[in-house]
Amino acid sequence: MTTSQKYFFFLFFLLMPLLSESQALKIQHDLVVAKDGSGDFKYIQDAIDAVRVFLPQPITIRIKKGVYKEKVTIPSTLTNIAIIGEDSTVISYDDFSGKGKMETFDSYTLRVLGNDITLENLIIENTAGRVGQAVALHIEGDRCVIRKCKFLGNQDTIFASGENSRQHFVDCYIEGTVDFIFGPATALFENCVIHSKANGFVTAASTPNWVNYGYVFKNCKLTASSGVDKVYLGRPWRSYAKTVFINCEIGKHILPEGWDAWGKAENEKTAYYAEYQSTGEGAKSSSRVKWAYQLSDSEAATYTKENIFAGTIKPTANTFWIKPSHLGITGKVDTSYNNYTAYLNSKQSHPVTTIVPEKPLATVSETYSITYGKIGNRALFLDVFSPKKKSEKPLPAVMIIHGGGWRTGNRTQHYQLARRLAELGFVCFTPEYRLSTEALYPAAVYDLKSALRWMRANAKTYNIDPDKIATLGFSAGGELSAFMGVTAENPSFEGTNGNLNYSSKVQAVVDIDGTLSFVHPESGEGNDSKGTSAATYWFGIPKKDNPQLWDEASPLYHVGAKTPPILFLNSSVDRMHAGREDFRKVLDQYKIYSEVHTFADAPHSFCLFNPWFEPTVKYIADFLKKTLVKLIDK
Questions:
Q1: Could you tell me the domains of the chain?
Q2: Catalytic residues
Q3: Beta bridge partners of 242
Q4: Which site from 258, 444, 546, 580 is most exposed, i.e. has the minimal number of CB atoms within 10 Å?
Q5: CA–CA distances in Å: residue 537 to residues 260, 465, 628
Q6: Contact 478, 606 (CB under 8 A)
Q7: What is the mean pLDDT of each run of 10 residues along the chain (634 residues)?
């Protein structure tokens, strides 16, 4: 090591504690920005710069009315922030391409690089005028939601960027002249007004060829200024551009041919431009260019929020994802993990293992294959196990989540556990959820939270107390159970499927051998050289390539003051409870009740088999009586 290198490392280790301390002093609570000095900050960028990086819980920055002439950036290190304005909150700037050495991508008024950012009730404008490219909003963040905002500009008003980014625009007004919605992102525009101020092109998508959707406009209204009469719906900024208009009202300013190939014949072969049931004078499908499409009913039905935002992995030759088969999303059911295969595996290392007989109980009522939600045409089912003896008061409920590495397994895995808990006075629900062969993280979380909201919506039907619900899971299901507990009502993990007016909060959690952190030193997930771990398939990207995503999916990342009581039941396989003690330290800090019971010399699948099954049932029942039942009795 050279002298300069030694000096660098000396300074790094000397300053590291100070850097950590300064970050700890950063703000992680709601803020107010006001020009008149009545808030926490006078300038928006000052408020953003003061916020802690990678926020563990969402915060809101409220911006009081006024015109803020600022060039604002939300960096990639900031997540979970909602920026909400009043009716006349304006963020304004006037940069443009060609101003000094500035290019299009430097000309923004507001640039959003962080994930899970919400913008609401803001007016974002670029006032440079008709001088060429002048961006109002440059947005690269993933899972961003933009509601009730106005975007004012001319050419290139919104740059919806990021190859893997997903953005949802709702009830927005967007105006411009040429290519005023452009870029490679997957973006859904719902109930928006799209206003053309001059003859030109509405969209210029540059969708990568491996992305499924691109730009989707649903129930939007396309309008124009007086005298504007020659506007195209879109042209491909790059080959393979994808843009679809569904149930939109299209004004007469849209040309009959609808679409332009940007002077390149090959674009007619690669671009995917389509419409479905558009109305208005500009929606005459018979005059459209021959290479555009009119969707069938069945094709249009696939354009759901869940499908559009499911995400797609880029098949790059320089990473693990070399072959399409390695993408993991096969659409096929993986049956490799079930109770019998788990039994054979456990029997090899623990000869005392015996199968728990699967049989109905005389005291328990069973109802199968109830539809709790739909993703397009895909129905999601659950089963219910409840005491036959009628109760005068609502009963506590337990959602039981199966394991299988987020890739295999099914909801029948814990039927006998559901029966035993129902026999003891709990109403148990065993939902299925989409596995990684069908959809990547966080689809499973969306599904389970949808199931939980469904339980509350149907509380009277199944005689459950909607305020006394626990999640219980084993292995991958244990991680999901804990994740459900620590992210209650976090909008980033709610999804959009069903009963959104009900809460996803739970009052107790049981985690049976489910990891608490994917990036903890104790974790074994994603550390293999081939990149074939169960979690790698679920996230769709190796840990080394996106450690932030792996951290975000860890319950340890979100644990805090609102986490419910939790029971940890563990095997003797240490890596299966990675992060547990750090997790409990946070619980202790907030005086939140927790228990740990470890079965010495037990296999990972211990809870499914004798001699560990009945002790497992007892620990769960005792814990739930201390938490849910005790709360009910109060």
A1: 62-308 (2.160.20.10), 351-633 (3.40.50.1820)
A2: 179
A3: 272
A4: 546
A5: 39, 37, 35
A6: no
A7: 47 43 65 95 96 86 97 93 93 96 94 94 97 96 94 98 91 97 96 98 93 94 97 95 97 96 91 95 92 92 86 48 46 81 92 94 96 88 96 96 95 96 97 92 94 97 97 97 92 85 96 94 70 82 84 93 96 89 95 96 96 98 90 42
